[in-house]
Amino acid sequence: MTQAAQPVAAPPPPALDERMGRRSGLARLFARPEAGAVAGAIVIYIFFFAVAPPFRYADSFSSVLYVTSTYGLMATPVALLMIGGEFDLSAGVAVTSSALTASLFSYEFTTNVWIGVLVALAEALLIGFLNGWIVVKTGIPSFLVTLGTFFMLQGLNIALTQTITNQVSSPDISTLQGYSSAQKVFSASFTIAGVNVRTSVLYWIAFFLIATWILLRTRVGNWIFSVGGSPASARAAGVPVARMKISLFMAVGLMGWFTGMHTLFLFDTIQAGQGIGNEFVYIIAAVVGGCLLTGGYGSAVGAAIGALIFGMVNQGIVYAGWNPDWFQFFVGLLLLGAILLNTFIRRRAEARI
Amino acid sequence: MLFTRERQRRSFVYAALLAVAVLVLAACSSTGGKKAAEQATNVAAGKANTPHYTIAMITHASPGDTFWDIIRAGATAAAAKDNITLRYSNDDDPTKQAALIQDAVNAHVNGIAVTDPNPQALCPTIQKARAAGIPVVMFNAGVANWQQCGGMSYFGQDESIAGVAAGKRLAAAGAKHVLCVLQTQGQVQLEARCAGVKQGLGSEGTMTKLYVNGTDNASMLSSMAAKLTQDKTIDAVITLGAPVALVAIQSLSQAHSSAKLYTFDTNAEEISKIKSGAVQWAVDQQPYLQGYESVDSLWLYLTNGDVLGGGQTVLTGPSFIDSSNVAQVATYAERGTR
């Protein structure tokens, strides 16, 4: 084990360097990674508020928040991983792998579903560990390593489900013991002021707040930034780079497990082909939220807002009743617009420093 | 300090492992699960002593679509009966499916059963198979072009006819505004179904299309709920696949919609929803029959020179599964053959 590193104490400030100059509060606000995303989210909210009447109801917005939460739960660890300088393309199908593991295990062995849930947790953490371990040990870019695991998991999901159940969806587990308590934990909903809200929204908010706290207020947070920004100097400063990266991959696995459990207990059965393509949504949410593809920069709040933008666009287009043939086009157009606005604001903010 | 932390961590891991072990021992479920599932009585009919053949079945099934499980179950049952080795492969990308057909030709299989969702891309390769002297039967998709492509027989449902039948039945049930939910964009047979529904409704009602992301349940749930919220005049929802129908049940409750739910195609879970009344009826094209007949007719051709259909489409649907016949179908669905 490497020696635990305390952050290097800052040298005494040299007299009047322009980098130490005070900036106005507003400029500092705009220089935050998520500033552009916040502006984009506000613009898109106002836009759909104007063009799509159903968008104005609290019930509809709760539905927007729900979609957001299913993406946001994953976008949060994916953002941390990106700040740490790595990608995980297997994140989308890993969600389905977890759900299938839990469901097939508890069904085939007729156990309490909580056992399946725990087995799935172990499986998800193992996959995260393997992703990270291969990346760290071989130095092969995570883009390639996780592309491999993406295909492998996709194949395993189909092949194992088919072998075990003779069909491509998991059996109904709603009659197993422990189902109702697991459902209460992972995919409950409650009514507040006449509006139905799913608990996944609260989990999502809690998780991105925790992630933000870790990033901005803890030593681990500093490590994540330094590992992604410059692994060599991070290592020189005593940061356990390898362990940090593996932990980040495992964090993605952990949240993939959580999201998988949510989906499983909402729908009772899972089709083995689910989740393909979602890995890009997670990455898009993180990038719209200010994460750099090169690592070392970004924020968890930003990823949450990126997911919110995606959720609003997804639902807003349907609420607006636009021609469905154009749906994908509009999704792409609005996301591109959000990214452009984001970049524009960041450039302006940086120019002012 | 490092040492103690390491030890603490290790004892935590042991504690967690112990907890899991205790839970596993104490936590068998006495309800549901595999133990409760009925022992499947398969459709088995002995085994022929005719020469051994190899038949390739190549479909456009997308990964994870339960519909194809039933087709495959039918094909497997026929192959077992007919002393045939079945090579099943699938790809929902037409170019890759064409490559799979070419692979089967190169392997000199004794017969090919193929679906044709995209005649422009697949016909040339299917014709090559015929040119190489391999008998080809077609099923499920490609009803408009199968003769030109060189198929001997075709087993399937004419999606337009099925759509029209569904539309007429919807009109009879009093539907005024039908939402047709497509789980994939740009597939002819799905479009044909919705167009058929519109035609069948005639002047009785209108049809609106909605595309959803078939690989993401949460997204499908929310898209359908959003559409139902946006347009309160929708009084009927028809989905084009069984897994979508299962999600639509939740969309209806989330949107507080009183619209009735109908669907094309079935699986075991969905049949149970017809039983419970959450789904009104399903258009059934009898996929088991399509898979079974494709293999069995090739066997008849190889062993006896028989050709089924007389150059005409052999229709396997549409039939309807509703409250009147669901009890009977349910027992078959549970073993995966309906």
Salient structural properties:
heterodimer, A: mainly alpha, ABC transporter involved in vitamin B12 uptake, BtuC, 14 helices, 70% helix, 2% strand, globular, disordered N terminus, B: 338 residues, alpha/beta, Rossmann fold, 2 domains, six-stranded parallel beta sheet, 12 strands
Kindly describe this structure.
Chain A is an all-alpha fold and 353 residues long. Chain A has a single domain (44-170, 177-187, 197-348), classed as ABC transporter involved in vitamin B12 uptake, BtuC. Chain A has helices at 25-30, 35-51, 58-83, 91-108, 113-138, 142-165, 179-186, 199-217, 219-229, 231-236, 241-267, 278-288, 300-320, 327-352; strands at 189-192, 195-198. Chain A has a two-stranded antiparallel sheet. In chain A, helix 3 (58-83) packs antiparallel against helix 13 and helix 4 runs antiparallel to helix 5 (113-138). Chain B has two domains: 53-157 and 286-307, Rossmann fold; 159-284, Rossmann fold, CATH 3.40.50.2300. Chain B is built from 13 helices and twelve strands. Chain B has helices at 2-26, 33-36, 67-81, 94-106, 119-131, 146-149, 159-172, 188-201, 217-230, 242-254, 268-276, 287-304, 326-334, and strands at 53-59, 84-90, 111-114, 136-139, 154-156, 177-182, 206-211, 236-239, 260-264, 282-284, 314-315, 319-321. Chain B has a six-stranded parallel beta sheet with strand order 2-1-3-4-5-11, with helices on both faces. In chain B, strands 7-6-8-9-10-12 form a six-stranded mixed beta sheet, sandwiched between helices. In chain B, helix 3 runs parallel beside helix 12 and helix 9 (217-230) crosses helix 10. The N and C termini of chain B lie far apart (64 Å). At the A-B interface, helix 3, helix 4, helix 5, helix 6 and helix 11 of A face helix 1, helix 2, helix 3, strand 7 and helix 9 of B.
